[in-house]
Amino acid sequence: MLNQTISTVTDRIIERSSGPRQAYLERMRNAASKGPARAHLSCSGQAHAFAAAGPDQGALAEGAAPNLGIVTAYNDMLSAHQPFEHYPGILRDAARSVGATAQVAGGVPAMCDGVTQGEAGMELSLFSRDAIAMAAGIALSHNTFDAVNFLGVCDKIVPGLVIAAQAFGHLPAVFMPAGPMTSGLPNDEKAKVRQQFATGEVGRDALMKAEMASYHGPGTCTFYGTANTNQMLMELMGLHLPGASFVNPGTDLRDALTAEGARRALSLSALGNDYTPVCDILDERAFVNGIVGLHATGGSTNLLIHLIAMARAGGILLDWQDFSDLSAVVPLLARVYPNGLADVNHFHAAGGLGTLIASLLDAGLLHPDTLTVAGKGLAHYTRDPKLIDGELVWEPGAAETLNDRILRPVSDPFQATGGLSRLTGKLGTAVMKVSAVAPEHRVVEAPVRVFSDQGAVKAAFQAGELTGDVIIVVRFQGPKANGMPELHSLTPILSVLQGRGQKVALVTDGRMSGALGKIPAAIHVCPEALDGGPIARLADGDVLRVDAEAGRLDILTDGVFDRPAATADLSAYQAGTGRELFSLFRQSVGAADAGATVFGG
């Protein structure tokens, strides 16, 4: 039996979305009826499209065999994307093995939030999602493809590729991960060194040694931030092959899954008998399943923005109340850093997504009958891929967790509700990741210190000003102000304050992703300061109450709304490191609770 709240929230989303969803599906049906344009291209156009195809030129010119488009986010600076260098060759060979062809349709940019933390480049990070969607749209605009493989992993890349996949939703698509790097220095040890560096106990040489021991090879970072949350979502929403997310790069199983991803995408094209376009996979039920997975695993808060933007691209309207209502009935089943000490490799070994999905299905917390690239029904995703005698097969996954300190069943969760909380009150609306916040830290009532950038917070800390219980407010960090950068460089400072016994919280219209951990942080505050939201009226000494248990974000000081909204000099955010190229984005971007997207606000 499907849980009643799951059913109610799904029905509410379907009703709310009926108009735009129907219009979207009509566009996709129309696009599907026209088919790929390569058969209709002029001889000159076809010659251009096939000129470099080598041995595949004949098959492409005949137009009888399906053609696979590859959209890749490869670069060799991002460890998570470096393995994609060799994927096109694997995909071409796999396509040829079934009488098809494959071409790299185009590349999309992919930036690393870890590299840009605290730097100007971070102000382009959120906007890169929509730029990626546009770039993928250009790649597929030649309209010569019957199916698509999307190669991407990290923070804004997968959401951007999903938005593009929705725009070309009449095509089937399989998303291709690269897998996590092998485990290195434990994340809690790395965090300890970061805090020691923040207080001057160790020098930069010790910090660099710890960081290099943690981030040490090809593959996704192993903590459970946005990148690995993306991978979970692609399984729960049916766009990965089952069990593909957390297989390490450079292994035979990884290569076998890559080749099968090409064959599977081609088998779902309109030229065969199992036509399964993206627009049919990503329906309202798939997005609800994704939100359930987000709560059950304690995933990144970034997805509260990205899922809304991804859904809107397919005519589906989500809001934060949907997330909140689902969080109330979905228990937290995983403890992966920063929610615990384990990394995603440990999670995968404990049973991983297959065991988690099986438990959620048994409890009626997932729609079981959604379409996926593996076939109808999420039961496919309770099975594990194996390479036996050189053949890729799927076998039943672990029926029970192999380590209950990392992964638990619905009957014995880490906590009864999900890992994310929606906060509302006089200050507006915000969200908080609570899965790693100890119960005693989930309610903070304290005077505020107000800052307009994270550099000022660091200066106040170094000057010894942040004493006593305090709520740090960092405003003018919203999407319209400066692209809503993540403020992770504050994490060591806030951790030190909390470690001293101070009650501490962060309130910001900026972002903190999934890696803040034990510090209560009300983020994505809407309306943002630049829009004159209440956060722009706060002053040092005002008392706030941040209450993740009750879902409240309240101003306790009288007279705050009688003040004029503060202003800030944002000129420093307008140019340099490419920021001037994104001025149009800052002018047209919507609010965080509407997906912080430039596509229709």
Give a description of the structure.
The chain has helices at 4-34, 43-50, 57-62, 87-97, 113-116, 125-140, 157-167, 187-198, 204-214, 226-236, 252-267, 278-281, 284-297, 303-312, 320-327, 344-349, 352-362, 454-462, 479-482, 491-499, 583-588, and strands at residues 67-72, 101-107, 147-151, 173-176, 371-372, 375-376, 383-388, 391-396, 420-425, 428-433, 443-451, 470-474, 504-508, 521-526, 543-547, 552-555. It folds into two domains: 4-34 and 65-182 and 217-396, Response regulator (Rossmann fold, 3-Layer(aba) Sandwich), CATH 3.40.50.2300; 420-594, Glucose Oxidase, domain 1 (3-Layer(bba) Sandwich). The chain is built from 21 helices and 16 strands. It is globular and about 75 Å long. With 601 residues, it is α/β, with parallel strands linked by helices. It is 36% helix and 14% strand. Helix 7 packs parallel to helix 14, helix 8 (187-198) packs antiparallel against helix 9 and helix 10 (226-236) crosses helix 13. The protein has an eight-stranded mixed β-sheet with strand order 9-10-14-13-12-11-15-16. It has a four-stranded parallel β-sheet with strand order 2-1-3-4, sandwiched between helices. Strands 5-6 form a two-stranded antiparallel ribbon.
